[in-house]
Design goal:
alpha+beta; Alpha-D-Glucose-1,6-Bisphosphate, Chain A, domain 4; 7-stranded antiparallel β-sheet; 25% helix; globular
Length: 159
């Protein structure tokens, strides 16, 4: 794992909602389009088969009109604990974003879930390029913030 350290990107957030609710928001195409992506982005899902070997193809539409085609192939799906997939995507003019991602959902009590996005890139240079070109760290935090805004009630306590 030490060799992976410089190739990794880890983003976490505690969502004030039950784990099963968070899981559904990540695996239901009707919900994921409501929050997926950084601020100002929208998403069009072409296919989403959340099962080992299943494919998720989607286009993220940036606020500047740039389209980012993405394709992920699910490697492991363990409801409601984790999703692992191989990802490829990017804009037509930018670098390809290739990585393996593990999304974990840890119950922290009845109404809280720690969501972890753990991405491992082929090289440290690939990781750094994606962080710099696409703003992957801030974009990841914005994406999880959008998820929390969808799921958390105004008083901060989940159902």
């Amino acid at each position: 794992m030490a060799a992976e350290k410089n190739r990794r990107l880890l983003i976490e957030r505690v969502i004030h909602a039950p784990r099963e609710m968070v899981w559904k928001a990540w695996t239901d195409p009707k919900q994921i389009v409501k929050w997926w992506g950084p601020n100002g982005f929208t998403t069009t899902i072409e296919t989403m088969e959340v099962r080992p070997g299943g494919v998720w193809t989607f286009v993220m539409h940036g606020p500047d009109g740039t389209d980012y085609a993405n394709k992920s192939t699910f490697i492991e799906v363990v409801p409601p604990e984790r999703i692992v997939f191989a990802h490829g995507g990017g804009s037509a003019d930018g670098p390809r974003a290739q990585f393996e991602s593990r999304r974990t959902f840890q119950a922290l009590g009845r109404d809280q879930t720690r969501v972890s996005i753990d991405m491992v890139f082929p090289t440290a240079a690939d990781r750094d390029r994606i962080v710099q070109y696409y703003g992957a760290i801030e974009g990841g935090h914005q994406t999880l913030r959008r998820l929390s805004e969808l799921l958390e009630p105004p008083d901060g306590r989940a159902g």
